[in-house]
Amino acid sequence: MFFASDNSGPAAPQVMDALAQANDGYAMGYGADALSRDVVARLRALFEAPDAAVYLVPTGTAGNVLALSCLCPPYATIFCSPVAHIHEDECNGPEFYTGGAKLTLVGDSDRMTPDNLRRAIAAEETRGVHGPKRGPVSITQVTERGNVYTLAELRALSDVAREFGLPVHLDGARFANACAKLGCSPADMTWKAGVDVAVFGGTKNGCLGVEAVLFFDARQAEGFEHRRKRGAHLFSKHRYLAAQMDAYLRDDLWLDLAQRANARCDALVQGLRGAGIEIENDTHANMVFFRAPRALHRAAMAQGAVYHIWGAEDGPQDEIVTGRLVCDWSQSAEAVTQFVETLRAAR
Amino acid sequence: MFFASDNSGPAAPQVMDALAQANDGYAMGYGADALSRDVVARLRALFEAPDAAVYLVPTGTAGNVLALSCLCPPYATIFCSPVAHIHEDECNGPEFYTGGAKLTLVGDSDRMTPDNLRRAIAAEETRGVHGPKRGPVSITQVTERGNVYTLAELRALSDVAREFGLPVHLDGARFANACAKLGCSPADMTWKAGVDVAVFGGTKNGCLGVEAVLFFDARQAEGFEHRRKRGAHLFSKHRYLAAQMDAYLRDDLWLDLAQRANARCDALVQGLRGAGIEIENDTHANMVFFRAPRALHRAAMAQGAVYHIWGAEDGPQDEIVTGRLVCDWSQSAEAVTQFVETLRAAR
Amino acid sequence: MFFASDNSGPAAPQVMDALAQANDGYAMGYGADALSRDVVARLRALFEAPDAAVYLVPTGTAGNVLALSCLCPPYATIFCSPVAHIHEDECNGPEFYTGGAKLTLVGDSDRMTPDNLRRAIAAEETRGVHGPKRGPVSITQVTERGNVYTLAELRALSDVAREFGLPVHLDGARFANACAKLGCSPADMTWKAGVDVAVFGGTKNGCLGVEAVLFFDARQAEGFEHRRKRGAHLFSKHRYLAAQMDAYLRDDLWLDLAQRANARCDALVQGLRGAGIEIENDTHANMVFFRAPRALHRAAMAQGAVYHIWGAEDGPQDEIVTGRLVCDWSQSAEAVTQFVETLRAAR
Amino acid sequence: MFFASDNSGPAAPQVMDALAQANDGYAMGYGADALSRDVVARLRALFEAPDAAVYLVPTGTAGNVLALSCLCPPYATIFCSPVAHIHEDECNGPEFYTGGAKLTLVGDSDRMTPDNLRRAIAAEETRGVHGPKRGPVSITQVTERGNVYTLAELRALSDVAREFGLPVHLDGARFANACAKLGCSPADMTWKAGVDVAVFGGTKNGCLGVEAVLFFDARQAEGFEHRRKRGAHLFSKHRYLAAQMDAYLRDDLWLDLAQRANARCDALVQGLRGAGIEIENDTHANMVFFRAPRALHRAAMAQGAVYHIWGAEDGPQDEIVTGRLVCDWSQSAEAVTQFVETLRAAR
C-alpha cells in the first residue's frame, strides 16, 4: 500500500534493459551519439513536429526552468497556478534560471480559468516599467491536485495567452497520464492546443530520470543548449538518458505505463467512493485527493499504508484532512483493494 | 492642484543651498570625503545607534534591494504586503539583487497583521528544500495605501519575525512622514520596534535623490559595500549625496518638511470629509485615497487637478474609482482649498 | 595640486545653475517631464542619430552594465582590455547585470589591437556549448591608462567585431576628453566608427552624476527601460538628471570643459617632459601616467600634491613607480606649474 | 582505438548490477531512502571525515558550481588555472551559480604554483570595493592537461589560500585517477592537504553519472541543499544515484577502475616514448598529451584511432599539433598496442 509518490516505484524493466543494452562499447559524449540523435527524431515523430527543437534533461525541474528561461526575460513575470510545481516545489528554480523573473499566481486553485488568467495578465504592465513585463503562461498537466485539463480547457487558456502575445509552457511531469486519460495524441495536447514548449516527463512514469523538452517553434529554443550546459544539466554520458527515452517511446511504452497507473487510480477512486469517502479532484489521472478524519488516516497508516497528508501529523483526531494517493505503473490491484478495505474497516 | 506624487515637487531650498556649498574645491571620491563621513556620524546620532552601519544610495529602490540582498539568500523568500513597493513597483529588483529570491505576499491589504504574517511564515519551509527558506519580513511605513502602522503594530509584526528568527526590513520611503505622524523618534520606529534594517528616505521629502540605509547590527551589513558597487550605486562624486542628507538632517529639516506635508494632507482629509467624500485609508500621513465617481475625477482634472486614479481612464461616468492625492513639503494651503472647492462644486 | 581624479573637482557652474532652475514647480516623475524629453532630442541631434534610443543614468558603471546587459546573454562573453573599467573597477557589475556572463581579456595592455581582438574572438566558441558564446566587444575611450584610440583604430576594432557579427560597446566615461583630443564629432567617434552603443559621460567632466546611454539601433535597446528600473537606476526626480545633461549640452559645454581639462594635461605633459620625466601613455587626453622613483612621489606629496601611485606606498625609495595625474575642467594653470616645479625641485 | 574521452566508455558491470538491484520495490524520494543514507555514511568513512556534509549530484559540473556557490559570494572572485574546467568547459556555470562572481586566472599553465597563486590573490582587493573580494581557490586534480599535483604541491597551494583566509575547492572529476597515481588515501588528497570541499567524481570512472560533493567543515555547506534543489539537481529517484555510488565504493571499485585506466595510460606513454614521440605532460594519470605533425594524426585517425587534437583539423600537414588520449577503465591492452603500432608505422 505504497501511494506516496510516482517517484517511489521501480523503473520499468524495458527501461532497465535499454540501459544495459546501451552500455556497450564507446559512444561520443554530450548527445553526439547515434542513440541520442535517434531519440530526437523519434520524439519529433511522436509529436508530429518535424521541426521541433528537442532536448533531454535529467529532471522535470530542469526541463521546466530551462524552458522558462528561454521564454521569459529576467524583468518579466510567469503566470501560473498558486499550487504549480514551479511555484511551490522548485525552490526558486524559475527565479534562478530566468535571472530574477517573478511568478504571478493566477486564481486560487490548481486549474487556471480563462477568466482569471485574463484578469491576471491584464493587471500586469499597467504600471509601465514599474512592474514586470508580461511573460509566459505556464500550465501544469496533470495539475498538482490531480485534475486533468480537457483539450478545450487547454485551448481556452492558450487562446488567452495568444491574445496578449504570450508563449505557453506545459509542465508535463505527468504528461503521459494526462494523455492516457484524455485519449488524445501528444500533438493534440501540445501544439495543436496552443502550447509552445512542453516538458514530456519520463521520470514519474517508469524511467530512472529523463525528461524531454520540446520547442515546437525551434526559434524559441535559442540559447537552450548553452543554458542547459551552464545549468550543469548536459550529461556527458548522454546515451544513458537517450536509452531510457528510447525504451520509453518504443511500442508506446510511455502510454502503456500511464494507462496502467491510471487504471489503478480509477480503481482507487471507485473503491473510495464506494466506501463513501469524499474525493477532492473532480477529474483524475493517476492521483486522488481524498478527505477523511485524521483518525482514519492514522488507522490506515498503522496498517501499513504509505502516503502524504496535507497538514500537520499531530492535529485533532476528528479534523478532516486531505490525503494524496499516487499510482505509478507498478502499482498492484491487490494494494488498491487492500487499501480500500483498510479504510472501510477503519471507519 | 498638483497631487500626483511626492516626487513631483521641487527640492527644499536648504538642500539646494547645501549642494551649492558642497560644490567647492576638491574632495576624494566614493564617500572618502569629510562631508560623507560626517553625515554617517549624524545619522547614527539621529537614530541613537552609534554602532550602526550606514550607507547612502541615490534611490529608494536601491536602498530596498541592496538591504534585502544582505538579508536574504537567493533560495529564500521575503514576506511583504501584496501592494508593497518592493513587489509592485521595483520591476523584479528584489528578485534581481537577491539572485532569485521569491516574495511571499501576506494578507490582502497594505497592512500586514501579526496573524496573517505568522500564517504566511508558518506555511513556508513545511516543504523542506522543495520550497524556499524563510527570509526577511519587509514592512512599508507609510504603506502604499497611505496608512501608518502604530509603534505597537510594528512591534507586533517584528515580534512574529523574531519568533521565527527572521530579520525585519523597513521600507521607509516616507519614513519622515510616518515619524511626524506618530510623533516618535527614528529610534522608536526602527530598532526599538524590532527593525533590523531601515531605509530612511530623503527623495520624496525635499531632496533630489538620496536615501540612507541603516543596519542596526553592523554584522548584517556584510557585503553591502561590494553589493552597492556592483549594483552601480556607489556615487563617485559622493559629496553630492552627502550634502543633500546633511541639509536634510540639519535643524531637523527632514521632520519639518514632513510635518508640512502631513499638515496639508490633514487639511485635504478634513476638506474631503466635510464634502462628504469617502476616504479609504483610516490613518494617513501625507497621502489620501478617496472614492468618487469617475465623472467627479474628470471634472476635477478638467479644472486643473493632477493626480492618479486607480483604474482605467475611460470607464463609465458613474463608476466609483479611487483617486490618490499625495502632498509633499511644497504643497500650498491654497491648492488644498482650491481642490476641495473644486470637488464640492463638481458634485 | 589636486590630480587624484576627475571625480574630485566641483561641478561646473552652468550645471549647478541648471539644477537650480529646474527646481521650480511640479514635474512628472521618471522621465515624463518636458526637460527629460527635450534632452533626449538634443542628444539625438548632437550624435546625428535621430532614431537612437537614449537614456540617462546616474553613474558610468550603470551606463556600462545596463548597456552590456542588453547586448550580452548570460551564456556569452564580453571582449575587453585587461585594464578595462568594466573588468577592474565595477566589482563584477557586468557579471551581475548580464546574469553571469564572462569577460574575456584581450591582449595585455589598455589598447586592444585588431590582431589580438581577432585572436581572442576566434578562440571562443571553438568548444561548442562547453564554453561561452561570443558576445559584445567593449572599448574604453579614453583608456584607463590615458591613451586615446584614433578613429582609424576604433574602426579597425569594430570591423573585427563585425566580422564575427558582434556588437560594439563604447565605455565613454571620458568621451568628451577623447572627442576634444581627436577633434571629431560624437558621431565620428561612435556609429560612424562602428560603435553600436555608447555611454556619453558627464560625471567626470563637470556634472554631479549623469551619463547618457545611446543605442544607435534602437532595437538593441529592447528591455533597457525595464533593466534600468529593476537595477534601481530610474530616478523618480528625473528632471535633476536631465537638467545636468541639458546644461552640459548647451553651447557645447561638454566640449569646452573637456578642452580645458585636456589643455591642463597638455601643460602637465610638456612640463614633465621638460623636466626629463618619463611618461607612459603615448597619447593623452586628460590623464598622464609618469614614472619616477618613490622618493620623488613622496617629496611631491609632502609638498601637497595629491594623486594616486600604482603600487604600495611603503616600498623602497629608489623603486620606480607610476603616478597618475588626472585633470578635470577646474584644474588651474597655477597648480600645473606648481606641480612641475615641485617635481623639478625635488629631483 | 577509442581514446576520445573517459566519458565515452561503458559503465562498469558492478555499477550496472547495482542499478538493477536497487530497482526493486518502493523507496522514498529525494535522498530519503536507506541506500542514499548509507552511501553518505560510507563516503564519510572512506574520507575519514565523520562530520563531513556529503551530497550526490549527477554531473561533475553540478558538483563544482554548487560547491563554489557555497564558498563564493557574488561579489568575489575564484582563483583557478586558465585551463580549468570551471573556466573553459562549464559555459559560465560558476558565474551563474554564484550569482555573478568572476574567475581570476592564475599563471599560464594547467598547474598553479604557490608563487603565481600568491601574486594573483595579492593583486585582488587592492582596489577596495572597486574590484571583487578574494574568493575560493579552485584546484583541478588531475589537471585538464593530464598532470597530477603531488601532495606537497597541493599543500603548498592550500597554504597560500590559508594565508589569505580563503577556502579551497578541489575539482576531482578524475579524483580516483589522481589518488591511484599518488598511492595516497582520499583523506590525504583532500582535508589533510588543506582542501575544504572536494568533488569526488564517478562519472568518468565507470559510473553512468554520479559525483559526490564533500564539505569537510559542514558549516561551509550552508544552503547547499536548497541550492541543489533550485539548480534542479536534486534527483527524485535518488536511489539510482546512490546505487551507482554504492557500487563504486564497494570493494574499492573506484580505485580498481582508476588503476586499470592508469595502467593503460602508462602503457601508452611508454609506447609513445619508445616511438620517439614527444609527450607534453610531465606526469600523468589516465591522460596523455602528445605532439606530432598533423599528417601523423591524420594517418592514425584514418586507421581508426579516435581522439581529439588541439587545433584546427584542416591545417598544414607538417604543423605540429597536440593530441589528447584518454583511457578509462574499459580500455584494452590491445587497443593501446595497436595505437602505438599505428603511430610507429605511420611515421
UniProtKB/TrEMBL annotation, chains A, B, C, D:
Tell me the domain of life: Bacteria
Record carries keyword Hydrolase = no
Q: Which UniProt keywords apply?
A: Pyridoxal phosphate
**Which cofactors are named for this entry?**
pyridoxal 5'-phosphate
Q: Start and end of every Aromatic amino acid beta-eliminating lyase/threonine aldolase domain?
A: 3-290
Looking up InterPro entries in the UniProt record yields: ArAA_b-elim_lyase/Thr_aldolase
| The keyword Lipoprotein is annotated on this UniProt entry | no
**Name of the protein described by the UniProt record:** Low specificity L-threonine aldolase
